[in-house]
Each structure stands twice: as C-alpha cells, then as structure tokens.
Amino acid sequence: MNGQIDINGIYVHPLLIAAIVAYAVSLPIEWALARVGFYRFVFHRGLFDFALVVVLWGLLAAALSTGTPFALSF
Predict the structure, then answer these.
(1) Residue 2 domain-assigned?
(2) CA count, 13 A, side-chain hemisphere, 34
(3) What digits encode the pLDDT tens for the residues 2-29?
C-alpha cells in the first residue's frame, strides 16, 4: 500500500483531501463569524480566513497521521 487514495484510477494524496475538507469546513465557520460581527475586530479578513484554513488543515493532517484525533506525541 502506497498511502494514497484511489479515486477512479487517480491516486490522490490524503493531505490534498484534508485540504479540501478543511476549506469546506471553514466556509460555515467564516459565515458564522461574519454573522456575529467578529470581523470588526480582525485587521485583515483575508489573512485571517487563510490562517483559519491552515489551522484546520493542520488539525486534520495531525489526526490523519497519528490515527487518533488530536493525540500529541513527544
């Protein structure tokens, strides 16, 4: 097994799928933050939204790599 996911004959790395899922999860979070007026306190909305996606992507990547979600290993 090579660690990649086969989607109709196309091999896709799991981190790419994690990035897509992180972006999809960030959209309702961004909508909720805009709805409650959180962005009034943010200096640069685009940078904040990008950082949110990166943090979510990192959490998903950590959960995929350790096998257990949010397990820290030192």
Answers:
(1) no
(2) 10
(3) 677 777 888 888 888 889 999 999 999 9
